[in-house]
């Protein structure tokens, strides 16, 4: 087994740090380079490795090409985890878009500049947020499902754009791993209005931070077959980690012996829609390749998370529920970000996006009459508009034309090399926008017209002419719903 050099971005974040720890445990066969911002926090984490020849820290910034290039030079693997994430992305949406897209562009430019560019393997970490809210009955998803970004979700916009940059860049060996919610002890410290931006019966297939770290390290092993590359995968810790948001809240609160959600929240604080989440019908595919799951029973994992928190979290069991509720209330009413601030001020766009209407909010039942049942375990598999039994090696231009028609558009290219899913073809969407994209991006990744998505959000109009998209729109939206959200909804935000 040959020694490899791995360049890791975002190595001081939750997933990246777990990946670094896994790689470091294998330093007998990996040299590790980390790109890290020059900050006190990062020096505290990384200075202890200053004298270790297996670790090199590149102090720099993802948006500076020279810094990224320094990390990429001589690397066998590039693990691109870094970037701005939520909830910070909510407060700095334009900065998030600039940083995350520029970082992807710098990675591509640096890799393609290397004399051995075709041999460098690039892993991009995408997100479940790219497929928006998938509430019951369409709460099961897989790669290749339509990209549908929630209104106001600039993080998902940036990740979708960046994924497109990576996949259709000309890099010969890439993989996009779409991360779900990550479980880590300090998740309980995230005291932010985003805690109420989720529907109670929305779902996620969570992934533990340890599993996430093993994903990154395991894909760098020589045992990973060539067929693994140039694909999209969903990251999840498996069936027992498929929870509704209500079930997640119960387990999280129970881990610190805190009263149940019914005691400390009002149900109307939680939105009814427009937040990402799905259970993965295909997460086993990645496990079969990388064998990354620790398979820790979910209740045991939540218990361990609670035990890993600072001592003062244990005091929650001594505090009356009404006092905790008073402490939670400010997040629901926080100016500009709290769900109840939107209601109080009658913010039409936010109310429509997250509740459907003011009437829908008024009709939210009390806890006693809430449907909090576990969503169906029967997976609904969406139609992707082409013969999925046919091997990729047999794909022809006829398959592309069929897929385009199912998306309400056309494949304008008249020829393609059979089985070539990397070369860009010409396409046209239902609105006449022409664009170039690879069959991999469209058929395997679920991407479509870059002018229509991410913005503007005119999903009702798209659904009318795009049967592929309609599958995720009409089950949870009225056919009369035709709301339009343009870039103007961000007027006045930071530049």
How would you summarize what this structure contains?
The protein is an alpha/beta fold. Helix content is about 35%, strand content about 15%.
Can you walk through the features of this model?
There is one protein chain. The protein has 495 residues and is of the alpha/beta class. The protein has two domains: 298 residues, NAD(P)-binding Rossmann-like Domain (Rossmann fold, 3-Layer(aba) Sandwich), CATH 3.40.50.720; 82 residues, no CATH class. It is 34% helix and 13% strand. The chain is built from 19 helices and 16 strands. The chain has a seven-stranded parallel beta sheet, with helices on both faces. It has a three-stranded antiparallel beta sheet with strand order 14-15-16. Strands 6-13 form a two-stranded parallel ribbon. A hairpin with a 5-residue loop joins β15 and β16. α3 crosses α5, α5 runs parallel beside α6 and α8 packs across α11. The longest helix has 20 residues. The protein is globular. It starts with a strand and ends in a 22-residue tail after the last helix. The model has no long low-confidence stretch (mean pLDDT 95).
């Amino acid at each position: 087994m040959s020694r490899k050099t791995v360049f890791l971005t975002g190595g001081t974040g939750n997933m990246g740090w777990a990946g670094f720890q896994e790689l470091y445990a294998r330093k007998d066969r990996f040299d590790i380079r980390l790109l890290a911002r020059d900050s006190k926090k990062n020096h505290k984490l990384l200075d202890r490795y200053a004298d270790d020849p297996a670790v090199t820290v590149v102090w720099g910034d993802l948006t500076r090409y020279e810094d990224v290039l320094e990390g990429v030079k001589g690397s066998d693997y590039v693990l691109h985890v870094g970037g701005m994430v939520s909830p910070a992305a909510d407060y700095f949406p334009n900065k998030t878009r600039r940083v995350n897209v520029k970082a992807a562009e710098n990675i591509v430019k640096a890799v393609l500049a290397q004399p051995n560019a075709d041999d460098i393997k690039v892993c991009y970490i995408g997100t479940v947020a790219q497929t928006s809210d998938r509430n019951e009955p369409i709460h099961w998803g897989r790669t290749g499902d339509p990209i549908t970004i929630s209104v106001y979700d600039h993080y998902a916009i940036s990740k979708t754009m960046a994924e497109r940059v990576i996949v259709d860049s000309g890099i010969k060996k890439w993989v996009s791993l779409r991360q779900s919610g990550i479980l880590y002890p300090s998740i309980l410290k995230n005291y932010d209005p985003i805690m109420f931006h989720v529907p109670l019966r929305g779902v996620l297939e969570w992934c533990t931070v340890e599993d996430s770290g093993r994903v990154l390290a395991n894909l760098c092993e020589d045992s990973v077959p060539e067929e693994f590359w140039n694909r999209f995968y969903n990251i999840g810790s498996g069936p027992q980690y498929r929870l509704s948001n209500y079930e997640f809240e119960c387990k999280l609160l129970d881990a610190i012996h805190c009263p149940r959600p019914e005691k400390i929240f009002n149900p109307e604080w939680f939105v009814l829609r427009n937040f990402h989440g799905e259970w993965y019908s295909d997460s086993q595919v990645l496990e079969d390749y990388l064998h990354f799951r620790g398979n820790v029973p979910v209740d045991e994992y939540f218990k361990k998370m609670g035990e890993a928190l600072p001592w003062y979290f244990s005091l929650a069991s001594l505090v009356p529920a009404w006092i905790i509720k008073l402490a939670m209330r400010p997040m629901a009413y926080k100016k500009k970000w709290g769900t109840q601030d939107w209601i109080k001020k009658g913010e039409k766009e936010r109310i429509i996006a997250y509740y459907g209407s003011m009437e829908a909010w008024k009709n939210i039942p009390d806890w006693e009459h809430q449907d909090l049942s576990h969503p169906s375990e029967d997976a609904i598999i969406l139609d992707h508009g082409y013969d999925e039994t046919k091997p990729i090696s047999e794909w022809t231009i006829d398959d592309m034309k069929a897929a385009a028609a199912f998306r309400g558009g056309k494949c304008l290219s008249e020829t393609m090399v059979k089985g070539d899913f990397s070369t860009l073809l010409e396409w046209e969407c239902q609105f006449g926008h022409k664009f170039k994209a690879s069959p991999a991006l469209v058929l395997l990744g679920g991407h479509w017209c870059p002018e229509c998505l991410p913005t503007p959000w005119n999903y009702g109009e798209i659904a009318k002419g795009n049967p592929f998209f309609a599958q995720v729109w009409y089950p949870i939206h009225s056919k009369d719903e035709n709301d339009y959200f343009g870039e103007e909804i961000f007027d006045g935000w930071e530049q």
